[in-house]
Amino acid sequence: MLKVCTKCKEEKLISEFSFKRPTNRKPGYQCRCKTCCAKDTKDWNEKNKETARERYLQRQYGISENEFLSRLLHQNNSCLICNKEFSKTWGPNAPVVDHCHTKGHIRGILCNACNRGLGYYHDNPDILRNAANYLEENYHSIHEKRKT
Hints:
about 150 residues; alpha+beta; Wheat Germ Agglutinin (Isolectin 2), domain 1; His-Me finger endonuclease fold; two-stranded antiparallel ribbon; elongated
């Protein structure tokens, strides 16, 4: 089945359009293709950075920009795990909200590397302790070999 995008005017497969179930009208496929929708969203986010960030924080974590900044200030503008100080609050290498995936509550603000590290270890403290023990055992054995 084919459909014409109202933005790029190209005829595309119906799979190139998102299906929506809106509350205020009949369910159906978007009038713009996924590619055009993605470009429009990116352009809007770029032009409306503050609003986009506020919406993101509210939708993802249920907090405002002010609450995010307050939490960051409370932890001295640094990662709660590695103590790396944040140079900016948005964009690449900016702090991220760490949250519990089962309960949904926010644990703190971390650097991206520490947040990903927790995820790689499935937020399991036993695995993290094992990893720390492994590093400590190998750290000492490597440094002892270097002394001799």
